Amino acid sequence: MVSQKEYKDIHQKCLSYFEKAGIVLTQNEVEDLEVTDFGLDRVQEMGLQLVVYVNTERCCAKELVLLPRQTCPEHTHPPVGDSEGKEETFRCRQGTVYLYVPGSKTDEPKALPPADKKQYYTVWNEIVLKPGEQYTISPNTPHWFQGGEEGAVVSEFSTKSTDENDVFTDPEITRTNENEA
Amino acid sequence: MVSQKEYKDIHQKCLSYFEKAGIVLTQNEVEDLEVTDFGLDRVQEMGLQLVVYVNTERCCAKELVLLPRQTCPEHTHPPVGDSEGKEETFRCRQGTVYLYVPGSKTDEPKALPPADKKQYYTVWNEIVLKPGEQYTISPNTPHWFQGGEEGAVVSEFSTKSTDENDVFTDPEITRTNENEA
Questions:
Q1: B81 has a chain A CB within 8 A of its CB
Q2: What is the ipTM of this complex?
Q3: Which residues in chain B have Cβ-Cβ distances shorter than 8 Å to A21?
């Protein structure tokens, strides 16, 4: 769980990232900024910050913030009901994102997950995204990502987002939003 | 048709708008920036500039630029095949956008279409979008919009975009991309 003190500190950092990226948010969006630690209680290492712009039955857009070297753990968006699962495009706006997807293992990857969690990271084809660069992830495709040394701001364009259906490789992970400070 | 000279001039303006908004584009995106005059040959009055980030079978994201007082003419996104039609969210990033949708007619609207085209503008419920503000348009809903005095940069998040299926109220309009300078 993210403590109130931690939430406030991370919230403030996110606002400065958004300001630097020229991204303007409404007061409601600022207040609703989500900080998740995926239930792992190590938010600086494994966590994600999100502002959801829109999420309808058909499409979704968010801004994501990654703190320096913060990892969003490996997961997939599996088929749900009639839907083949979430498709998402990550577009880097600021900083650097190291994204890992299925494919040839990259030699000397630029990001590593926390050592004690390495067994839960199974895809190692590295995609490096700098500002203006983007990558589209097909449904039901395992992926994980990490911010570079200066963190990152990433726009996500996708089909409907239903976090509760995400499947994480690490069995310890629960994706609940328990951090409303 | 947009002349090469006009295309170059507008292209340059768009790049300065994007720079001011902190939006970074790849070289390919810069080169592919689309300027459309909707076949009306009056691009400064009625036209739109677009960068398409992604457009898959399921979702689409674009950046739009409106020049000062430039109007995107009234149109709808009707059902196509099995799809109920395009749903789109406009999020203002910079400047002001005056958006018109069905509903009570706004007294003294802040934007007016060119006088000789007024009969092709049938919805007059005004939505004003400033940076950080957004509005979602349901499928098959007539709408039109105009940039404010200083123009505007607008992010569009939507379902699949198929310009050729758009239905414009003005019968003179053809939505072709004939402006590759």
A1: no
A2: 0.93
A3: 22
Tokens 């994480």 identify what position? A168
**Contact flag A25-B60 (C-beta cutoff 8 Å):** no
pLDDT tens digits along B38-86: 999 999 999 999 999 999 999 999 999 999 999 999 999 999 988 899 9
Six-digit token string for A98: 């190291």
Residues of A in contact with B133 (CB under 8 A): 26
In this prediction, residue A88 carries a pLDDT of 97
Q: How many beta-carbon pairs below 8 A join chains A and B? A: 74
pTM equals 0.94
* Pair A33, A51: CB distance under 8 Å: yes
Query: Is B61 in contact with A61 (CB distance < 8 Å)?
Result: yes
Among residues A32, A13, A135, the alpha carbon closest in space to that of A70 is found at: A13
On chain A, the residues whose CB falls within 8 A of the CB of B23 are: 22, 93
Domains of chain B are: 4-168 (2.60.120.10)
**Could you say which residues from 139 to 168 on chain B have a Cβ atom under 8 Å away from some Cβ of chain A?**
155, 157-159
Q: Give CA–CA dist B30/A140, Å, rounded.
A: 32
- pLDDT band at residue A180 under the 50/70/90 scheme: very low
Render pLDDT for B132-147 as a digit per residue (tens, 0 to 9): 999 999 999 999 999 9
